[in-house]
Response regulator
Amino acid sequence: MTTSPQPTALKIMVIDDSSTIRRSAEIFLGQAGYQVVLAEDGFDALAKINDHHPALVFCDILMPRLDGYQTCALIKKSARFHATPVVMLSSKDGLFDRARGAMVGSSAYLTKPFSKDSLLAAVREHTAAVPAQS
């Protein structure tokens, strides 16, 4: 028996060109009761964000066509989504990458591969004040 997502569950968008990372995040978040919206790259995410209004966005940095920094900057420039937290995802854990992410408006930085606990801790930290969606 499959259970449908709870209508009040927060929506979380995961943008990553790696199907493994997207699937891992989808499983971890889904098990915790969140609705998950997946996007393969920045263009895919920008096409979906208006339809889904996520409470939080996880965004990979190194992606083809539109990288994570550009994607984050475009989300943050939007009047509708400027307050939406964006957590950058990267396999690199350098000070430069963190600083550049902060410059384009990201709320935090999560190093890949992430654990279920670190992913869910980031969600709790950045959605604590967000009311459940219907």
In short: DSSP finds five helices and five strands in the chain. Strands lie at 11-15, 35-39, 56-60, 86-90, 108-111.
